[in-house]
Design a protein that fits this description.
The chain is of the alpha/beta class. It folds into four domains: 2-151, Orthogonal Bundle (DNA polymerase, domain 1), CATH 1.10.150.110; 155-244, Beta Polymerase, domain 2 (2-Layer Sandwich); 249-321, 2-Layer Sandwich (Beta Polymerase, domain 3), CATH 3.30.210; 336-565, TIM Barrel (Alpha-Beta Barrel), CATH 3.20.20. The protein has 24 helices and 17 strands. α1 runs antiparallel to α2 (23-37), α1 crosses α7 (100-110) and α13 packs across α15 (294-300). It is globular and about 75 Å long. The structure holds 2'-deoxyguanosine-5'-triphosphate and calcium ion (2 copies). 2'-deoxyguanosine-5'-triphosphate binds next to α11, β4, α13 and α14.
């Protein structure tokens, strides 16, 4: 479905037009964006059937733009505007009081492209000096930057999950508590979370709530009730605790795991079967059909069990009806980590320490893939380092039992798409990971071509963090993913699901799309310390949210089969 992307581009074009006071066309583009946003049909189907101009607000001109976007992935006009104003629109627009006109002014006068730039100039009182801005506007901007940062301020799953688990464990200590489950977006393993939702089984809710609202992690109590309490945690997000009786816990867990979209779909389905589903159970008339476990409820509705990671959209319901849910890659299915840094480049721990930690994790193999070649951002190995590291790996492979260390490198993809390291050197490695590491952003076509070129190099096995996003501040590269996935599949290049909490790249929806293109994927930690090796489960969660099965993930293979697919 390209609907989101098309709507987004139309909306952005409207922003650019607003910069130039072209209000008539602004209105037309906004209306069209809105129409596309709210379509229930796939815009590609509508286009194929020649019905674009039947949509409200879409005339000949905009229909042609949409066609172009569907065909090429972007619009030349849009690309031209972006070059003219290379600013982070999403971030800047989220600051209250900053609209397209202000963005234009700030860019022209001060070169403001990002929230950080905006804050820099506001703090130094550069903004008040611009004609048409003034002290008041500057002060308002400064106040609202923080707010914008907080509001987009959904928290990262990788940072909040340990906190949620800690609260769960603290509640479990109580004698009156039978079970605590984390529900909501965290249970679904969504990459960012709005708050923490905890469900408790207990027959003494009073004691649970008294204890909960007095935990040291709590900053402020918003509501304290017998069945539900909400607090603000010191971490800066809310935590809800709800208490239930054991016999309805499955229904509660199902409801409060969501997503809202899935709940709506399930409720509709229950109604179609002459039943009623709520957080209190599945009912037929007055009679309770199922409530104590999720499994029972799904079964009673004729559905296969839907794993929480698949509950983001209603799609899983259709698959559960027809018994077509994927057999998801499991949290214990990963046999090794193929992207690990040591202090030979910018890692914190020694190579040997990293290997020991991998052995602790029960891996059969790992690949050290330190940076090499020219990188101005971080320490990087030269040819001599690579030789010496190789000797050390030989020594460790002699010494260690049950685990094999592969010799890898992480090379940087240069501006022409070639790794900036000699191919004869790459040929000698067991595996080569290639990634873009410069902050420089090229346009859609150029960026896509660079990546495709990199994949066509036969020494490159893995593309690391393919869209190079960093949450929250760095948006993903604007890439033609269809082209990237096609090339990956044709060249037998493996795309990484990077488990770093700020990356999770490829992200879930792209994982799903890559699999449709028959791409093979690899889940890596990209660890720069022993501790970060433990992030792997976040990458696995992302893979599961992208419907990935074991056969889609090459590091679920044992060493022998892995070496076969690496084909070196
Ligand atoms: P979040 O907190 O924004 O990351 O996302 P969720 O999904 O955790 O949302 P939250 O905390 O508002 O609610 C938890 C779950 O409770 C949600 O996934 C589904 C269920 N729920 C809450 N409010 C509603 C509602 O108004 N309608 C339906 N159908 N379900 C709801
Ligand atoms: Ca939530
Ligand atoms: Ca909540």
């Amino acid at each position: 479905m390209q609907n989101e992307r098309v709507a987004h581009i139309l909306d952005r074009i409207a922003d650019y037009m607003e910069m130039d006071d072209d209000f008539f066309r602004v209105k037309a583009y906004r209306r069209a964006a809105n129409t596309v946003q709210n379509l229930s049909e796939d815009i590609e189907t509508i286009n194929e059937e020649g019905r674009l101009q039947e949509l409200p607000g879409i005339g000949k001109h905009i229909a042609a733009k949409i066609e172009e976007i569907l065909e090429t992935g972007t619009s030349l006009y849009f690309e031209k505007l972006k070059k003219e104003y290379p600013v982070d629109f999403d971030a800047l627009l989220s600051v209250e009081g900053v609209g397209p006109k202000t963005i234009k002014l700030l860019y022209k006068e001060l070169g403001v492209e990002t929230l950080d730039d905006l804050e820099h100039h506001a703090r130094r009182h550069h903004i008040r000096r611009i004609k048409g801005m003034g002290d008041k506007k500057e002060k308002q901007i400064l106040e609202n930057i923080d707010l914008a940062r907080k509001n987009t301020g959904r928290k990262l799953l990788g940072h909040i999950l340990p906190l949620a688990e800690s609260i769960k464990h603290q509640l479990e200590v109580l004698k009156v508590v039978k079970t605590v489950e984390i529900a909501g977006s965290i249970r679904r393993r969504k990459e960012t979370v709005g708050d923490i939702d905890l469900l408790v089984i207990s027959d003494n809710s009073q004691e649970v709530m008294d204890y909960f609202v007095n935990l040291p992690l709590v900053e402020e109590v918003i509501v304290k009730g017998p069945l539900k309490s909400t607090v603000i945690l010191k971490e800066g997000l809310d935590c809800d605790v709800r208490v239930f009786e054991e016999d309805v816990f499955g229904a509660a867990l199902m409801y409060f795991t969501g997503s809202k979209e899935l709940n709506v779909e399930l409720r509709k389905m229950a109604i179609a079967q002459n039943m009623k589903l709520s957080e209190y159970g599945l009912f037929q008339g007055e009679e309770m059909v199922a409530a104590s476990t999720e499994t029972e409820i799904f079964q009673a509705m004729g559905l296969d069990y839907i794993p929480p990671e698949l509950r983001e959209t209603h799609e899983a319901v259709e698959a559960a009806v027809s018994h077509k849910l994927p057999d998801l890659i499991g949290y214990n299915d990963i046999k090794g980590d193929l992207h690990i840094h040591s202090n030979w480049s910018d890692g914190k721990n020694t190579l040997e320490d990293m290997v020991w930690e991998c052995q602790e994790l029960g891996y059969e193999y790992l690949a050290i893939a330190d940076h090499c070649g020219y990188l101005h951002v971080t320490r990087s190995m030269d040819e001599k380092d690579i030789k010496n590291q190789s000797t050390e790996i030989d020594r460790l492979n002699e010494k260690m039992e049950n685990i094999t260390i592969l010799k890898g490198l992480e090379v940087n993809i240069g501006p022409d798409g070639n790794p900036d390291v000699d191919n004869t050197l790459l040929q000698e490695m067991d595996l080569v990971v290639a990634g873009i590491h410069s902050g420089e952003r090229k346009d859609f076509f150029e960026m896509t071509q660079i990546m495709v070129n990199a994949m066509e190099n036969e020494n490159v096995n893995i593309i690391s963090h393919p869209t190079n996003r960093r949450m929250p501040e760095r948006p993903e590269y604007d890439l033609n993913l269809d082209k990237i996935f096609e090339a990956a599949s044709e060249t037998n290049t493996f795309l990484e699901i990077n488990s770093n909490p700020v990356r999770l790249d490829l992200k879930d929806v792209y994982v799903k799309k890559a699999i449709q293109y028959n791409c093979k994927l690899v889940i890596n930690s990209d660890a720069h310390s022993q501790n970060q090796l433990h992030n792997m489960h976040l990458g696995i969660a992302t893979a599961r949210r992208g419907w990935a099965e074991k056969e889609d993930i090459i590091n679920s293979l044992d060493l022998k089969d892995l070496l076969k697919v690496l084909n070196r």
